[in-house]
Specification:
- The chain has about 190 residues and is mainly beta.
- The chain has a domain of about 130 residues: Jelly Rolls (Sandwich).
- About 5% of the residues lie in helices and about 35% in strands.
- The strands form three sheets. Strands 1-2-10-7-12-5 form a six-stranded antiparallel beta sheet, with no helix packed on it. Strands 9-8-11-6-13 form a five-stranded antiparallel beta sheet, with no helix packed on it. The chain has a two-stranded antiparallel sheet with strand order 3-4.
- The longest helix is centred in the N-terminal third of the chain and has 6 residues.
């Protein structure tokens, strides 16, 4: 949802809200977008308002990253990094899949949702995330609470893992995927 197809009636007067998901610690967040014919404005991350709704108070972001995706069908992931993330979309629309890759009874649980600029998500460390662009010109931003390091331990899982059975809106054989992401191991082959 870029500026060209923004419909202010979809978002005005909506209140910020947080929903828990079936993955412990993973939060789906509704943001307030206010706009008119010129475009829109949102508070992308406002700690006190989020904490009042149940957001983790101890999340202290120290780095912001942006992934710019030109075409519909770009698919990235599944990557679990050793830090917590606050993800939001600045333009466009995505389908996202989150997989719990932490040891425990929720290991392998998948949560999917669509995100537009009116949505955000908190992903706890140890959960793998992937996304697929449903429009062109997607700007995907995320705040993290640790700096990237070449020594960081990542857990990677194949986007097409049959055990996860993710229903990608654009079939993976038609998607734009890096060779690196295509080569990730299956869930059954992980050693945690």
């Amino acid at each position: 949802m870029g500026l060209d197809n923004y419909n202010s009636s979809l978002y005005e007067n909506k209140e910020i809200g947080i929903k828990k998901t079936k993955i412990p610690g993973l939060l789906s967040i509704d943001l307030v977008l206010n706009g008119d014919e010129r475009g829109w404005f949102k508070e992308n991350f406002q700690r006190e308002k989020l904490v009042a709704q149940g957001f983790p108070r101890d999340f202290q972001p120290i780095q912001m990253n942006v992934s710019a995706n030109k075409e519909r069908g770009v698919t990235r992931g599944i990557h679990a990094e050793p830090w917590n993330k606050y993800i939001s979309i600045q333009s466009g629309k995505i389908f996202t899949a989150i997989v719990d890759l932490r040891k425990g009874k929720s290991f392998g649980v998948v949560e999917t949702l669509e995100m537009t600029p009116g949505k955000a998500m908190y992903v706890p460390k140890g959960c793998g995330n992937a996304f697929q662009t449903l429009t062109s010109d997607v700007l995907y931003t995320y705040l993290v609470d640790a700096h990237w390091s070449p020594e960081a331990k990542y857990t990677l899982v194949n986007l097409a893992d049959p055990e996860l059975n993710i229903s990608w809106p654009i079939p993976l054989n038609e998607a734009i995927i890096s060779d690196k992401d295509k080569g990730h191991p299956l869930l059954k082959d992980l050693t945690l």
